[in-house]
Fold this protein.
Amino acid sequence: MKKIITGVIIIILAVIGIFYFSKNSNQPTINIKEPIKIGVLIPTTGLAAAIGDDNRQGLELAKEYLLEKYPDLKLELVYEDTAYDPKVAVTAYFKLRDVNKVGVIISGGTKISGPLRKVAQLDNILQMAIWSAAPSYSEIHDLNYRTTPLSDDNVPVLVDYLKKNGYKKLAVFYPIDEFGITYKESFEKLAPLGGIEIVDIEGYLATDKDFRGSLSKIKNKKPDALFVAGTAPQLGVLFKQIKELGIVVNLLSQGAAENKQMLDGAAGAAEGLVYSYYFDPSSQYSASFSNKYLSRYGKVPSQYVAEAYTGLTLIGEAINSCDNKLEKNCWKDYLDKFRNSPTVLGLASINERGDLKPDKVFLKEVKNGKFVKLEE
Amino acid sequence: MDYFIHLAILFAIYGILGISLNLVVGYTGLLSVTHAAFYGIGAYATAILLTSFGINFFISVIAAIIISAIAALLIGLILSKFDDDYYALASFGFNIIIFSVFLNWQELTRGPLGIPGIGKPSFEISNFQFPISNNFEFLILALLFLAVIYFASRFIVNSSFGRVLKAIREDEKAIQVFGYNTLYYKLAIFVISAAMAAVAGSLFASYITFIDPSSFWLMESIFILAIVILGGLSNLKGSLLGALFLILLPEALRFVGMPDDIAAQMRQVIYGVILILLMLYRPQGLTGEYKL
């Protein structure tokens, strides 16, 4: 018995040791042409895996674009799954830092980017957050940046829409996490300024599948419009249940709604949905990127693809501007001075908090089962 | 190498959790799925005391133990009305209730926003101060706590108290006939186990420096139960082995060369297959005395 136990322990340690040392022995100890490694912490399993897939597609396209534009640029992407769990993300981060020796990380998701910011800051590692909308991420700015507009950038457009169309009573249904709370708080702050009364606010857990109880409460408050935040699979189920309960309201949401998974889950119940969006795939800045993506994947890129593409492109441009050297202060200087420059998200600037402010946030709708720009 | 020190710290924390749950599940035969709740109570107690009141880490651990023990006493009294599968279901319910408190009592816990900026431990005696300033020092501290809890648990299970626990597991009615108040023993070990889990929670909060309710969801209780079952019921060393195995296996799989776009998914599949094989060929766990 003791031999079995000892053997199991030895095998596990040996596996780790063999792979670790074999990877290190293949790398030259000193090589000025060694690629700069960028750790990518995105969910490739779990509830947010579909977003992680989009991110990967955007990152690979960005890498191709950068290597084509700057042949001397040496970049290597090292992917690690976070399963959208902060604990898993922190472990993966340590592995990227200590074993892969990354100089930069790209982190996906509000729940991941926030906790990682603290450790990355201590380690002086540049962090580019994508689809991370929590304001707290950029409370302290040093080497942390992000490409996601905040809820305060999205909500005014939705409130304007409600005001112009004469909607007076709004209900908010949000996921009880940092992402959902920022939207709830934005509406609480901005809706009254637009003359809109918030008649009900309900929250739900990420793991919930049946929302009928809370939706019934909302129905009783008789809102004109209902804003729902969440991931695509959740939104699909939600919209279907809203229709089943006979809740007749103008449906509002945010960018995550633009996803075929949402449409499939909603089974027609999302028709007429209006949502905020910040990526225009047909603009002069994104057309080439969108065409390349379309020819490769057969679909229009989502904002998650665009954000990942933008994030890596910014990093690549910063590294190139610093002669391909691992000089973070130089990269920071480049990024902090990024103003009114073209990105696939439009003409954008990085503000004093390290947040990329896109050209504009606009509205789209679901019309005849398709995602189209809302006609004004 | 901080990565390996990080894994070692996780091993220490989950080792404490595994040992403490083994006292209840393995030695007493009570299938409890509440452990993540007590782990969370410990973590939140330390987080709140450190961030809001600036209290020393070690004082916060004592407070966490007391709060967790009181919660366990109340929950244990209710759970004592149930047997077998109903006990497991009821404990499941309590885990959900405690999780909901973490998530919704936003004035205290900040809800889903979590509590960031939790400080590191610091030894303070009179004018002498020794802060834990790096992960290696934290590892030493975590291993010390693990050692204390391991030896305390070993003392418990080797004592007459421990023998009564095993007798309750084997045949509660029979031991009652001999005049033993089994409710007292079950409650006592449940409270002791919860207190130990709170220590693990305090360590976790201080190490990760950020906690939110998602770390103490039901799946965490099931993970801790898996450590106990895999390592071996009614064997303290087995809990350590189970923790080591379940912490190291997913990390070892990170180094297995697979295409990036399927690596994470394949790791989960391989992980699951290994666990199934282990349970097929060692249903009593790596070092267990009996099967669940």
